[in-house]
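Cross-check.
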Amino acid sequence: MPSLRQFEIFVRLADTGNMGEAAAGLGLTQPALSQQLRSLEETLGLRLFERVPKGMQLTPAGRDLVAGARSVIAAARDFRDAADHIAARPAGSIRFGVTPTMGPYLLPGVIKVLHERYPDLRLFMREGIPSIQHAELEAGELDMVLSPLPVVGRGLRVEPLFREPLRIVAPPDDPLHDSGNLTRENFHGRTFLTLDHRHHYHRQLLEICDQLGASVLSDYEGTSLDALQQMVGSGVGLAILPELYIRSDAGGLDVVRIAEPEGWTEYRSLAAAWRPTAAYADLYAEVSQIIADEARKRANLQTA
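Predicted model, tokenized:
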């Protein structure tokens, strides 16, 4: 019978497609991970992965089995939580996944409220690509995620929280600021900066640029909203920044200015998600409400 650790290796490698990244994420050396994977494949009598130029890829058998492996990991985590719950031991930590386009400037206030209510509770935040974190949540590697919609995963409760306006920003000396009432035609041919193409932010930006007749700078992908803001301020291009980021201490309009066409109403929808079967699902629901309250306190946001 495969061990729980082998299931974790199987799922992590399926998500990353890279032996070194999977090993680092699990606190293993690459040779140890390779040995465990080989042992799992021998136990099952199946090849789960094949090598491709960019790393490791699931075989047809691996694709058929990976969902079951995720379920095993999630069930094991929920069992441990349920045992703690029955034993009246408080939840010691929440493994919280969050997109870097939200966490750094919203969660500090959430953490403050949580600490006041539950002084012994620890929130372990992991920034990452939303689609990967959705899979990690489904597999039980995360307890909860804060993510742009849509959130995709089997057996998840998805709680829409709020709609966040998206704002176009330009350098302070950009000619857009001298054009009076802007229209979408003013943005034809302009270039926007973006984040890693795996982010929902990137996909939404492509749609917006298509509507504006603009383009995305293909040879630069920022790692954070701060990076985008600074690059815009230096004159590299335009960007779209979320409202809450602009209103935060981390963001602001020190090096950029808002420049938007008339009738601009673009936004993104944010949601919290968790496994409803988890022993502390009621706590995760409370956390999601705290997040929504904190966001609305900072800006007049609509329900998602």
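The longest strand covers residues 157-170. The CA atoms of residues 161 and 289 lie 8 Å apart. Passed to J.P. for a second look.
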